[in-house]
UniProtKB/TrEMBL annotation:
Keyword match Isomerase: no
Transmembrane segments: none
Family that this chain belongs to: Belongs to the protein kinase superfamily.
Chain segments carrying region Disordered: 1-97
Keyword terms of this UniProt record: ATP-binding, Kinase, Nucleotide-binding, Serine/threonine-protein kinase, Transferase, Ubl conjugation pathway
Origin species: Oryza sativa subsp. japonica (Rice)
Positions that bind ATP: K203
Entry GO MF terms: ATP binding; protein serine/threonine kinase activity; ubiquitin protein ligase activity
Keyword Cytoplasm among record annotations: no
This enzyme's EC code(s): 2.3.2.27
The name this protein goes by in its record: RING-type E3 ubiquitin transferase
Length: 471
């Protein structure tokens, strides 16, 4: 029954007060209340019950939240412990990795030190190999020189000594016939003359010459103390007349054979190779002279003469110099404020710095090698060949292609008729000539280590190089 349907109890007549009024009479309400309570408990919610219920629900929620919080705290604690464990283990792992990296670095450094040591040993062996090649070349050159000296000594008539001529002898020997004039140079006129029953080439200083006493004394100082089969022999001199007397070399100059069409036609490849070998041999001898190396300083075809056996000899040592060893570069040199030389044969570095070295002669040799192959003038020759080749590596081509390119580009002298072997040698000589005539001194090859052995290997004539006589 609903609350609003409750009917109030009927009015009841109460008895009058009597003696028994004190006797408790149950109120009708009492009888009613139990019925009402039963239904009320079952049917009607009480505010207190709602309050307790809600309170209970709050408690349950709090317990649930507390449980969740506890679970979160537990997980957080577990996570912290795991992190702490990782952090505790990480230094050990990092320490292990660090130790491994240090070991690898040490191993890398050790290998680098080994590589540096191997490279140092390689360079040392390379230098020793080059020094052995250099000494082998010098040994061969001096062995050839020794044999020449012995041959001279065995022939008493060829033994010569330096003679001091007097002025009257010079005056009497000067020919009046200009046909006896062998040539003219920067120093003076060269005559064919006869002195003390010997025919000589006599060079007398020209009064208008820029050369003079210094060049006169220099040539005597060098040629008086050295002899070599590829150097002109100085027979004597006259100090009062500044006259120099040489052995007579009747077969002209290398310049004649390169310029004169008829002479060039008969100038075979074998002869050209022998000329290159002879020039190179003479330079090796000069550059290794003791106590002072000698730089020719004016190497050119006009100063290379031929004797009656067509052996070529270097002449004109007027501007040659005795070189001094220096501590800064280790290269012997002579420094002058006024560099002298001959046009296209003059070392560009000597011209710019005034420092004359053996490499200055190597430059001039390079130009001459190019001329021996081409038969052309020295002026602009190197640039001409470089421009025509346009970077072509002739030495890496086969012989047929080498010959085709040399002829097509007109690098090879048209007067030369070469077989396959000679074509290969001509290519080698061009390559050597270009390297020797490099404008940078440090990029030129060593005369003893590279140039002389390469040229000597081309030589078809009998020689000591590689023979059993010299190891």
């Amino acid at each position: 029954m609903a609350m609003d349907e409750i009917i109030p109890p009927p009015e009841v007549d109460l008895p009058r007060e009597t003696e028994d009024s004190e006797r408790i009479i149950p109120s009708p309400d009492v009888e009613y209340l139990p019925r009402q309570t039963e239904d009320t408990e079952r049917k009607l919610p009480s505010p207190e019950v709602d309050y307790l219920s809600r309170q209970n629900e709050d408690i349950l929620e709090q317990k649930e939240e507390h449980g969740k919080t506890t679970e979160l705290e537990r997980k957080e604690k577990q996570l912290k412990e795991e992190r702490h464990g990782e952090e505790h283990e990480r230094p050990h792992e990092e320490l292990g990795q660090g130790t491994k990296l240090e070991t690898q670095c040490e191993e890398h450094k050790r290998l680098e030190r080994q590589c540096e040591e191997l490279e140092r040993q390689r360079r040392k062996l390379e230098r020793q190999g080059e020094e052995l090649k250099r000494m082998k070349t010098i040994t061969i050159v001096y062995e050839q020189f020794r044999q020449w000296i012995e041959d001279k000594a065995s022939n008493s008539s060829s033994g010569v000594s330096f003679i001091e001529f007097n002025p009257s002898e010079v005056d009497d020997s000067v020919p009046k016939d200009q046909n006896h004039c062998l040539g003219r140079g920067g120093y003076g006129i060269v005559y064919k003359a006869k002195l003390r029953n010997e025919t000589v080439a006599m060079k007398i200083l020209n009064e208008s010459s820029r050369q003079g006493e210094r060049e006169f004394k220099q040539e005597i100082a060098i040629l008086k103390r050295i002899r070599h089969q590829n150097l002109i022999t100085l027979r004597g001199a006259c100090s009062e007349k500044f006259a120099l007397m040489y052995e007579l070399l009747p077969n002209g100059t290398l310049e004649d054979r390169l310029i004169n069409e008829k002479q060039r036609e008969s100038f075979s490849w074998e002869e050209r190779v022998r000329v290159a070998t002879s020039i190179c041999t003479a330079l090796v001898f000069l550059h290794n002279a003791k106590p002072n190396p000698i730089a020719h300083g004016d190497l050119k075809p006009g100063n290379i003469l031929f004797d009656d056996e067509n052996i070529c000899k270097l002449s004109d040592f007027g501007i040659s110099r005795l070189l001094q060893q220096t501590n800064d570069t280790g290269t012997p040199n002579h420094i002058t404020e006024v560099p002298k030389g001959s046009g296209p044969y003059m070392d560009p570095e000597f011209k710019n710095t005034g420092k004359l070295t053996p490499q200055s002669d190597v430059f001039a040799l390079g130009i001459i090698l190019l001329q021996l192959v081409t038969g052309q003038s020295a002026t602009g020759l190197r640039k001409h060949i470089v421009d025509k080749l346009e970077g072509k590596k002739l030495e890496k081509m086969d012989t047929r292609k080498q010959k085709m390119i040399l002829e097509k580009l007109q690098i090879l002298d048209a007067q030369l008729k070469l077989d396959d072997t000679s074509i290969q040698d001509a290519v080698k000589m061009v390559s050597l000539g270009l390297r020797c005539s490099n404008s940078e001194r440090k990029r030129r090859p060593s005369l003893e280590i590279e140039v002389w052995p390469e040229i000597e290997s081309m030589n078809k004539s009998e020689c000591l190089y590689g023979s059993d006589e010299v190891d």
